[in-house]
Amino acid sequence: MNFDINGIRSQFPALNREVNGFPAIFFDSPGGTQTPQRVIDKMVDYMIHHNANSGGVFATTVETDELIFNARKAFADFFGCDWKEVSFGENSTAINFRLSQAIARDLKPGDEILITDIDHDANRSPWEILAERGIVIKSVKVDTETLTLDMDDLANKLPSKTKVVAFNYGSNAVGTISDARKIIKLAKTVDAITVVDAVHYALHGVLDVRGLDVDFVFCSAYKFFGPHIGVLYSKTQRMDQLKTLKVSAQKDHAPDKFETGTLSHEAIAGAAEAIAFIAEIGSKHPQYLNESHSKNSQRRNNIICGMMALEDYEIPLANYFKDELRKIKGLKLYCPPKQQLCTSTISFRLEGIHPLDVAKRLAEKGIFVWAGGFYAVGLMKALGLSDNGGMVRIGLAPYNTKEEIERTLQEIRSIAGAL
Questions:
Q1: CATH 3.30.70.1400: does it fit domain 41-278?
Q2: Superfamily of domain 5-35+303-416
Q3: What's the mean pLDDT in 53-69?
Q4: What is the pLDDT of residue 260?
Q5: Does pLDDT of 184 surpass 60?
Q6: What is the average pLDDT value for the chain, to the nearest integer?
Q7: Strand stretches in 254-408, DSSP E
């Protein structure tokens, strides 16, 4: 694949930063990617030339309404849905809190909700809180050897009382991609509402909500080159039935019924531009298209090609990175087996060294990585890492390079005493 890494890197002004005389290496993407200049420019342009509240008749408010509408259409192509099924919110956590509270209005004591131990806390706590209403919360176990969901445990915990099945598509802590189609199919056997946290996955794979036949999917644009804003897909039938939490004057139809108050218009502008950035990459890689894509819009196909091109660039780098890390004495990788689908996120621990100390040593050399539990509360508890610092986490993005990996490996070897 002829992936233009230099052309990609040139669009990210943050990559010019130095720390202590070292060029910065941004391996922090699981917590949020860097932002291309075009996204920044789009947000600034909105604030200067179009800034207004929505719903009026003068120029800037009309332009704002058009911007929001066009952004819905862009995310419709991102999700593979209709524009009316796209809603915006502050962030994914806030979206899921509002969604869970709305769904709970139709639940009664004794009803059951199924979450999983691999979930981010944003897809656990909003549901766990409902236990105070007498709703039963169950959590699917994780196989601590493969770092995958125990599907037998999931099936056993899916009785007729299950009203909601909520799970993450990709683990932000260890990169595991769960079998969303299989989980959703199982949930449908008991007519449970399905809620998918795609916050981590959205940077690493094509979202196809129609193909999944899922009810709700949420993600955050800052995980894929945009600003801090959350986005929700809602299947029309489910949103129509949902008793959302809203002010009385708010419209009672999708997508407005889920959006309480004034939106962050500048962030919506930036998020739509992030989609355009991915689509432009995809326009240069049409080799991923086949007959099944013939009914899609051109932008949808470009998004598909863009996402696939990004992963085909990142995954070989991640595999090389993991193979080299395995050679370091005293280093334990936390990643699923090679045959398991996963993202380009890499987590590890060094024997006898606290993860935060590793992150600090790397930070001194301008290498940005995360350390801790990453809000993967159930997973860290299952692995016995909750009280001793969690893991060091490295995440690759399409602006990272083999040279950056080599430099980081050298520093990790030095920290481990392997040099």
A1: no
A2: Aspartate Aminotransferase, domain 1 (3.90.1150.10)
A3: 97
A4: 86
A5: yes
A6: 96
A7: 331-334, 345-350, 367-368, 370-372, 391-395
